[in-house]
Task: structure prediction
Amino acid sequence: MKFASFTQNYLQTREIKQSELDDVVQFARGAAIVARDELSVLRFAFTEELSRGELDNLDAAIDSLEAIIDFHPWWIWRGDGDSMFADHRAKLSRYYSEVFRRIEDLAASLRT
Result:
């Protein structure tokens, strides 16, 4: 999931030009597709070995990645503070944060 971590850090970079925002969002969506496929394979392969709570965390991570994949705004904006425009990078970054939190919970429960 190293590429997903890179993607979240890239989304949070403030030096991205307005003209490059669409590329960044599409990159984030592509990384989410790969991560979703990886987690789906893990879920399928280890369903019997994982507890119900671990499966719930995995399912929640997959759902957050699906939300990133299904994100199709007409225009990509970099809203800031009290701007009337949405900050689409922040929205995607929030979903990635949820994915990382769920994976960390899963990893912690597997270590015990």
Remarks:
- Helices lie at 2-11, 21-45, 52-69, 88-111.
- The chain has four helices and no strands.
- Residues 21-45 form the longest helix (25 residues).
- The chain has a mean pLDDT of 81.
